[in-house]
Amino acid sequence: MADLAPQIPVYLFTGFLEAGKTKFIQETLEDKRFNRGENTLLIVCEEGLETYSPDKFSGPNVFVRMVEDPSELTAENLGAWLKAHRAERVLVEYNGMWMLDALYQALPGSWAVAQEFMFADAATFLSYNANMRQLCYDKLKSCQLVVFNRFVDSLDKMAFHKIVRGASRRADIAYEYKDGRVEYDDIEDPLPFDLDAPVIAIGDRDYALWYRDMSEDPQKYTGKTVQFLGRTLKNKKLPGDSFIIGRHVMTCCAEDIQFMGLICRWPEAEALKNGSWLRVTARLAYKYHRMYGRRGPVLSAISAQAAQAPAEPVATFD
Length: 318
Hints:
This protein is an alpha/beta fold. The protein has helices at residues 21-30, 75-85, 100-106, 122-131, 133-140, 157-167, 207-216; strands at residues 8-15, 40-44, 62-66, 89-93, 111-121, 145-151, 172-177, 182-184, 200-201, 225-233, 242-250, 258-265, 277-289, 294-306, 315-316. The strands form two sheets. Strands 3-2-4-1-5-6-7-8 form an eight-stranded mixed beta sheet, with helices on both faces. Strands 10-11-12-14-13 form a five-stranded mixed barrel. A hairpin with an 8-residue loop joins β10 (225-233) and β11 (242-250). The protein starts with 7 loop residues before the first strand and ends with a strand. The relative contact order is 0.10.
């Protein structure tokens, strides 16, 4: 059997101009604990006021490649740049105005994102989020750490916390003050429903939050009974005793609204009208289903009652 190509770790730094990405990367590459001589490809996708000082890196092993347009990010180019410098790892300072999918889709098969960080200037982040929410959400949804630079005591941490948690419940959040202090977010996020109740009642406004939590940690709900309001979706590929129930969910803006549903088994499924609203009480199992093509949540309905559409048919994380 041929040897598998070694994985190339990618360290991804996202955020908008003057958010602190360059400074952090510079300090990282000056640190001998991180930069111990491995050939490193540094891909820089935007130029700000702060510039790199390669002479201060802990070794001459860092090779900088400037990228001015996302069209340059192709698997062929990335592979060629890596090969030209015999690099063993990659750091990417990504342009905050470019969507991350352009990069992820271009990564060669042997490249894997090891860590993803987002940096934001606390003084401008709330304004950026209000005016460019899709771009902010794009950078928050998959990062492992969000760093709010230049934080001051007069700012409300809860406002920042809610925005991050609206995109991800897994990302760590750090607040870095102007004096160099760093505080990590410790605000608790209790779920708005009781996981220990005999029937977990999902409020009409909480469907998006529940669906994400259930998707991220399905074992938490396996074997439990849930109740929620959803819309039916009939599919000819399903057997007569099954249908799909869910809600349209908006994660960031109107352009990304999508239907998020689950397979549900119910003896009376054939009588349902496509698009009707139901209040379903069902037991949830996490198992293989051919419609998913993998393991996924499968409901067995105990009851399904016709219901009125909610006041806000599109579920959100707000």
